[in-house]
From TrEMBL:
It comes from the Bacteria. This is Alpha-L-arabinofuranosidase B. Keywords: Glycoprotein, Glycosidase, Hydrolase, Signal. It comes from Streptomyces cinerochromogenes. PANTHER family: ALPHA-L-ARABINOFURANOSIDASE B (PTHR39447). Residues 367-508 form the Alpha-L-arabinofuranosidase B arabinose-binding domain. Transmembrane segments: none annotated. Residues 38-349 form the Alpha-L-arabinofuranosidase B catalytic domain.
Length: 514
């Protein structure tokens, strides 16, 4: 066999070491070589990936194929988005170039494993009409120091493959993980990734085996506010064999921007759930025990389809974020899970963009008021609303993060700008009924227009003013500590001409949370 790269050699040696240990009776396989990616690590542990999906990066050191496919609205043309290099990160610039001057949706997510279990837009099912593709630019994020895009699912979006190869069926063992976000969730069914029915219908207990992530509490009690990592085993989101949580300390992940969610199931009498902060630390096991005690779950009856973003019967009311995920043949060891988590942390999801204090795309900034009353106040989000409040170097980490924004090309016009939340990936400042809020990008033309602001010289003669793209005589203004798009005079209190020019003029500063 000809090994073309040092990385391939490392992976080969790791597999050889594993086999040697097994033959010698040395117990658990050793950790794979340093530099290995998730599917290399799982293969070295004897549980190879049968599905490997990511919009962000390669999941094998040797992979150099396409990650996903986009289709542009202008002419219906499609193209695949690949990697900057083998084993590396997505070539997001290729997407930006292809989609320039129009919008794109994601039509296919390629499987990096040799099984070719590619996901396409999901068709109609027992509980939902045919889905639509997610907007390709809705979830810009930094990974590995590169600007890439994740997948942002809104209600009515989902992906599926009903004709797979190698995925567990009829009680076979499997493991799976996904990197998702605790900031873009709801309590609707069902943001899943994993094993599902092959006919888009609910065919009974135990016919699914998928990770679920959200705030839906199917079996009471659930503790805390969530979101929780749960197992969608069909006809229930399970936190234990009884369904409800037996773990009072499992209150959910909270609004962590990046979460590792993990499920493994031997298909017969045991499943386990884990989660971790995808930016630091290890994994926490929230349940490890028997299959659900209700009938049909022991043994399992998996059918082997793969679903992403919906339930097995295409219940598609959920929202969620997806960056990467894999499914394995067999149950990975805890050591392999820990090694994969360490690799995920090394990606540096949501790390600094490398640019600060300007209105260039990708720059991280804070926006300071220039009105004499409020020169220590900055635009921040609070309970989804945009407000101004005092932020200093002694402010809490939360306050400083809430007051930091990432400049993006205008979602409706690339000559303007949009502002993405630093700690809520995929959420942008947008106006609704003239009030400015922080909301997740849903891909609609209305959202794009509402979230686009066109900079010009400050109306007071200092700083920068931001005209609303779709209401060009209205500008981003603070009034009574809240944010609006306001005209200079009008019937609304926030349109008052008093100090209008100062209130719509902003200082673009270095970010409070770079």
């Amino acid at each position: 066999m000809l090994l073309r790269t040092p990385r391939a050699l490392l992976s080969f040696l790791a597999v050889c070491a594993t086999l040697a240990a097994l033959f010698l009776g040395a117990g658990a396989p050793p950790a794979a070589a340093a530099g290995s990616l998730p599917c290399d690590l799982y293969a070295a542990a004897g549980t190879p990936c049968v599905a490997a999906h990511s919009l962000v990066r390669a999941l094998y050191t040797s992979y150099n194929g396409p990650l996903y496919q986009v289709q542009r609205a202008r002419d219906g043309a499609k193209t695949n988005i690949g990697l900057l290099s083998a084993g590396g990160y997505a070539n997001a610039a290729a997407q930006d170039s292809f989609c320039s001057g129009t919008t794109c949706i994601i039509t296919e997510i390629h499987d990096q494993s040799p099984r070719h279990n590619d996901l396409t837009i999901e068709g109609a099912g027992g509980a939902g009409a045919a889905d639509v593709g997610a907007p390709a630019d809705a979830l810009p994020v930094t990974a590995g120091g590169h600007q890439v895009y994740g997948l942002e699912i809104s209600a009515g979006m989902g992906y599926r493959d009903n004709s797979t190869s190698g995925v567990a069926v009829n009680g076979q063992a499997e493991g799976m993980y996904m990197v998702t976000s605790g900031t873009h969730v709801n309590n609707r069914c069902c943001f899943d990734y994993g094993n599902a029915e092959t006919n888009n219908m609910d065919t009974g207990n135990g016919h699914m085996d998928a990770i679920n992530f959200g705030t839906e509490c199917w079996f009471s009690p659930c503790y805390g506010q969530g979101p929780w990592v749960q197992a969608d085993l069909e006809n229930g989101l399970f936190q234990s064999d009884a369904g409800y949580s037996k773990n009072t300390s499992n209150t959910g992940t909270g609004p962590l921007p990046f979460v590792t969610a993990l499920l493994k199931n031997n298909g017969q009498n045991h499943f386990a759930l884990k989660y971790g902060n995808a930016r630091s630390g290890g994994l926490t096991t929230t349940y490890s025990g028997g299959e659900p005690t209700a009938g049909g779950y022991s043994p399992m009856h998996q059918e082997g389809a793969i679903v992403l973003g919906t339930g097995g019967d295409n219940s598609n009311g959920s929202i969620g974020s997806f960056f990467e995920g894999v499914m394995t043949a067999g149950i990975p060891t805890d050591a392999a899970d820990d090694a994969v988590q360490a690799d995920i942390v090394s990606v540096g999801y949501g790390g600094p963009t490398g640019s600060t204090g300007t209105l260039g795309p990708g720059s991280e900034i804070s926006l300071r008021a220039t009105t004499s009353c409020c020169t220590g106040d900055y635009v921040r989000h609070q309970n989804d609303a945009a407000v101004i409040s005092t932020v200093t170097s002694s402010s809490s980490s939360l306050d400083r993060n809430d007051a930091t924004w990432i400049v993006r090309r205008g979602l409706a016009d690339s000559s303007c700008v949009s502002f993405e939340s630093r700690n809520y990936p995929g959420d942008f400042l947008r106006h609704y009924d003239y009030r400015v809020r922080r909301q997740p990008m849903d891909g609609t033309a209305q959202f794009r227009a509402d979230a686009t602001f066109c900079p010009q010289t400050g109306k007071s003669g200092t700083g920068t003013s931001f005209a609303s793209y779709n209401y060009p005589t209205r500008y981003l203004r603070h009034y009574d500590h809240s944010l609006y798009i306001a005209s200079n005079g009008g019937t609304n209190a926030f349109d008052s001409a008093t100090s209008w020019t100062e209130d719509v003029s902003w200082a673009v500063t270095a970010p409070w949370a770079p």
